[in-house]
Amino acid sequence: VSELDGQQKQLVSQLVEMMLRPFRACDVEEVRECLAANNGVDKLQLTYFKEGDIGNDGVWDIWKLEGPAFSWFFRGSPHVHTWLNVARKA
User: Does the CA dihedral 81-7-56-47 come out positive or negative?
Assistant: First the structure.
């Protein structure tokens, strides 16, 4: 993510915020604090996979967002699965 331009970094931040919407407010705040303690989205790495592309539309349905003390995996096929692991220290 550190290699992305400002607009792209903002999109990654928006992605994280959108994915946090279903969680309790206190948990969302803790995730934000943990992410900030590890230098925010700049230290994250985004990986997406062609395999499992629903409808072969070029919109990748499986991705990972990983960094120090942060790991988020999303799989949209055959139905949605997501895993989030966050810590204060790497």
Answer: negative
